[in-house]
Amino acid sequence: MRRNIKLLSWFNFFLDFRPYSVIAIIYFSNITGSYALGLSVFSIVMISSALLELPTGIFSDKVGRKMSIVYGSIASIIALTLYALGSAYWVLVLGAMFEGLSRSLYSGNNEAFLHEELAEHGQEKHFAEFLGKTSSMFQIALSISALIGGFIAARSLSLVMWISVIPQVICLIISLRLTAPKIHEKANTNIYSHLKESLKLFLQNPKIRLISLSQITSYGIGETLFQFTPVFIQMIWPVWALGISRALDNGFAAIGFWFSGKVLKKYDAIKSLIAGKVFNGILGISAVAYPTVASPVLMSFTSFFFGLASTARGDLLQKEYSTTHRATMGSLNSFGGSIFMGICAVLFGTMADTIGPVKSILIGEILVFATVIFYIRLLKYYSTKQ
Is this model's pTM higher than 0.85 or not? Predict the structure, then answer.
């Protein structure tokens, strides 16, 4: 068991070790000659990922978790290579489609892999702890690579892109060394029946429904805000410090993921979600409504509860999923989150053009805070059922 979990931890690290992420929009815009076309590359990633969520989730449930990770690694290598080649817009579009494929193959699948690995050894009760620690590697990698990418970009944007391919090759090597959990049960129904059964679980299980809705809305609004905040931060800090701000975001998130298992052992998961949402709401709204030089740091600190909340939701959902539908259910959530983010991005972009980015971000912070209602409803449900 420990070998697989160690490999998964390092896989997560190299998967998100992407030095190019801090300069991606600059690189794409230089190639396309347009910020609109540069931003469209990100849109294509999200759209293709959303469209492929359900097929790849079913693929994972039917053929196994390891092979989904292997194919995801191959797709990621192709995507980053195409980005690095970047000779024309259509090359970037093709790369974005492969990145969307890669994301969808990992989505739902990798958490299912971890859960089944632990279940095989009778350790599923420790899922939250292991999920938090393995997920913290994403944030550590993002934090370190953001700083490195900024320094390399000062010399060459193209060099940053080619260096970013190397960690994805390492991911493929690691994925081939993983051992598929024997506990995995392949789905025997046809694809349409399997999807119908998964949707039925979502509609009939109020716990899954409430947690999923909180995850979808928090991701859609929160991820849009995450992309917007550099506009606000550059009004307070110099442009060269944007990388530091992003490194702080990922650093606090890594700490949140790492200690989430211990926190959730000591405190109730739903109450922790409510407390974190309230704390983040107060901090985020205050930082934007009353901007100071400390605002970017305060906004970064909310990432600690992002790590905690992600782990808590993942733990609660895995306890409700059935083995044969585990990845498909996760993909349904990711599909909803990606689609909702696409809608939010358009609405927030339009709103920012109309009333300005600061007011738009403030409205976004208020909307994120409002999602606490899902957790309050969930708490009442548990209280009446237990």
Answer: no
